[in-house]
Amino acid sequence: MHPTFRLTTLCLSAILCSVCWPQGTMGTLQTNTIPAVKEFGVADTKLVLCFDKTVFGLSRSSASLAHISAKNINYVKVETLKPGLNGGVNAEITGGAIKKPNIVITLTEAVLHTTGATVLFTNQELVVQFGTYDAKFQECFYQKLYSGMISPQSVTFNNPAGKAIKYVIVETDQNIEIGGISASIHSGTVGDSKALTVQVNATPNTIRFFNNFTVRMFCEK
Ligand SMILES: *[C@@H]1O[C@H](CO)[C@@H](O)[C@H](O)[C@H]1NC(C)=O
Fold first, then answer.
1. Ligand 1 centroid vs 148 CA: distance in angstroms?
2. Residue 150 CA, ligand 1 centroid: distance in Å
3. Residue 151: pLDDT over 60
4. Of 82 and 138, which is predicted with more confidence?
5. CA-CA distances (angstroms) from residue 30 to 7, 111, 187, 197?
6. Please, which residues bridge with residue 138 across strands?
7. Where does the secretion signal sit in this chain (predicted)?
8. Kind and range of the H or E element at 162?
């Protein structure tokens, strides 16, 4: 039994959030039996919730999650909701930073499993990025793709504004326990090209996607 993790991110207030409620209500949702919480930054009542995601740990050796916000992300909390046999969470910042508008957190189970089965799932990412996000970029492309679609899928964007595409992020919402993605740039160069083709594959390698995912591109203004 692998643990389930929850990641909450608090940002400066007055941002556009998909879910916004005061930080104080968060504690009531916590159902830990083995408290295992990792925090980055400092919680403050002035901050609002801007990202909240539950990650199922099924045979996954690590999973990365990314969030891009209109305002700086000041505090991130990772907690184990349903500990597995080993419980616990390891989390580290692997991209972006606290007090910046983007962050990538990579979660690993506290005890790494060494069975053959784990090896099959090591590339089951929830987020794949190309380039480095910068707040001065502008989102210029968004496409959602759906579970049940044939894998792989190719997404092409040719920026009509003629500006270079500087950063690409592909994310799955992982609403079921399996279903990560891998992605590669099929044509163009992130950072220089105004047209790019991104190919996304389901992982584990199946003929259809298990989960919805989005492709977002950010361009020079
Ligand atoms: C995919 O998105 C649709 C529409 O937003 C939603 O109804 C569905 O539950 C999602 N499926 C998965 C597997 O996340």
1. 10
2. 16
3. yes
4. 138
5. 11, 22, 45, 41
6. 219
7. 1-27
8. none
Answer whether 135 contacts ligand 1 (Cβ < 6 A): no
pLDDT(105) > 80: yes
pLDDT band at 170 (very low <50, low <70, confident <90, very high): very high
Which two tokens mark 11? 């940002």
User: Ligand 1, from 175, 176, 211: best to mutate by most atoms within 8 Å of Cβ?
Assistant: 175
Strands 138-145 and 127-130, how do they pair? Answer: unpaired
Torsion of CA 109, 110, 115, 120, to 10 degrees: 20
Place of tokens 């184990």: 80
Amino acid 33: pLDDT: 43
Backbone angles phi, psi at 217, to 5 degrees: -125, 145
Looking at the CA of residue 173, tell me the nearest atom of ligand 1: 14
- Of residues 105 and 32, more confidence is placed in 105
DSSP state string for 28-68? GG---SS--EEEEE---TT-EEEEEEEEE-TT-SEEEEEEE
Tokens of 13: 């207030």
Ligand 1 binding pocket includes 147 (Cβ within 6 Å)? yes
Instruction: Please work out whether the CB of residue 4 comes within 6 Å of at least one atom of ligand 1.
Output: no
- Helix, strand, coil percent values for the chain (each to nearest 5): 5, 50, 45
Cα–Cα–Cα angle for 11, 69, 201, nearest 5°?
A: 130
Of all helices (H) and strands (E), which one includes residue 199? strand 195-203
Query: How far is residue 117 CA from its own chain's centroid?
Result: 23
